[in-house]
Design a protein that fits this description.
six-stranded parallel sheet, disordered N terminus, transmembrane helix, K/H_exchanger, antiporter activity, about 600 residues, 28 helices, 2 domains
Amino acid sequence: MSAEAHAFSLVSPVVLLAAAVIAVPIFKKIGLGSVLGYLIAGLIIGPFGFAFFSDPNAIIHVAELGVVMYLFIIGLEMRPTHLWSLRREIFGLGTLQICLAALALTGVGLAFGFSWQVAFVGGAGFVLTSTAIVMQLLGDRGDISQPRGQKIIAILLFEDLLIVPLLAIVAFLSPIQVVESTADRLQGIGIAIAAIVGLIVAGYWLLNPLFRLLAAAKAREVMTAAALLVVLGAALLMQVSGLSMAMGAFLAGVLLSESTFRHQIEADIEPFRGILLGLFFLGVGMSLDLSVVANNWQLIIGGVIALMVVKSLVIYIVARLTKANHYDALDRALVMAQGGEFAFVLFAAAAGAKVIDATVQSNMTAIVVISMVLTPIIGILFKRFTISKDEQSLEGVRIAEGLSGSVLLIGFGRFGQVTSQLLLARGVDVTIIDSNINMIQSAERFGFKIYYGDGARLDILHASGAETAEAIVVCVDDKDTTNKIVDLVQDEFPLAKLMVRSYDREHSLHLVKQNVDFIMRETFESAMSFGEAVLKQLGLDEHDVAEISENIRERDQERFETEIAADDVNAGVGMQYTQSKPRPTAPLVKPKQDSKLLNESELAPSKQNN
């Protein structure tokens, strides 16, 4: 093969990679997110931009494996017991949302003057959300493992189950009559059930032994190949049986979620998932036909607005009916407002079955693509112009009001949780407040009673019982917030003992000036204990370790007093031990007997004996 042919064959991958490398960091830098960066980059390099590519659908079909791998990784994080606990969300919430949205969106199509068959196809294509975009957005926000994210994932899983039934309905609507016997239908159902059962059996009894065998071979590249084989094999099995590839990958992930090789498999798959998912977004951007948009812009823009608004409204209503709070319901409605990648398959099948014509297919495809492009933008605007989720998500959370206790503990993070254990073990009447809603909800699942409240607000301190507390314990992990709380407490509640978690040495000096009753540097005691453990591991006995530890504490206190007197955090730097004069690690105690010098005469007999 000539050099020119080699160069030509590399143009496509180089352009794709360059587009991603340039666009994504820029869009993330300006706060528009990676998804929008991929989509716009795809539009620029696609057939209606610089025309580096003429067939974006080919790229989408290959890159759809990125969505498949994403669902596999989600499955790895979802144990079978957890999946079973989501059954109501998958089948109950999913059914309610899909049915109501399908009816409403079909109504939109009828309002635009289409026949009920065309309106149904358009509504069905738009009712199924883009798994790729939603999963990427949830991942970027860190919401996949949160309750709001789990409900969205449950709905997406139910949508994947609807792919085959919807294709069957499209075939039924076709004016081209295809005679299919009952036996053929039953055979198709049987194949699908057999594929699912076969995948479950293989997951439980074959995959773990396979990975143990490969791990024993100590060939990392083979483990990576095996991980890809599992994902693609499960996807292929579902595809040939008429089911969703993503569903097959998800089931394979769930079956491996309790495997000892779970983390290794996830690490092997992650790079491929990221690249292919990015490639998918590039392909979606390329598929936006600007000439179709220009020729039918009124219909397309009107369709985008109508379908997204109606779908969002239905999702919000369903979320509220199922007792989601306002913020979570609104968030779910906007995140899932777009059409999905399955619409491309459904519209193509409908066009092939003569249910819709080529013009309608092009217009519907453009509507779905534009809705996918708009979703990240809407999400950014929603985040920027709405009040924080903590203020919106207070349903079911106890508000600090009319409280009292002998101790008021402010901040229930890692530090506050450990501190509270000593007080609760003694039966002390403790009132605990925090401003992190997710943490409060998580703590309540373990039996803690935490009240929502910002300790840096005077009204919250009053409502939390600060004026009757014997001690106010500040355990927040933000220095500025701590200082605000200290100022408020000393001005308004001077009779309470004020005990404060210090961020660092400089912060401790500031708190001393504020006449705080007790200060604890957040890492000092843990670092001292850790250093003591290291010395013991090196062979020192308990007495020597205690002596060294006491010496360090005395020097640190002396240094701290020097810094207070000088009002300078650097005043006592010279009191620290440094590596300028290396010290032996052992022995640090005097030998039990003196050493002797062995001269030649003493060594002679031993030499002769040898």
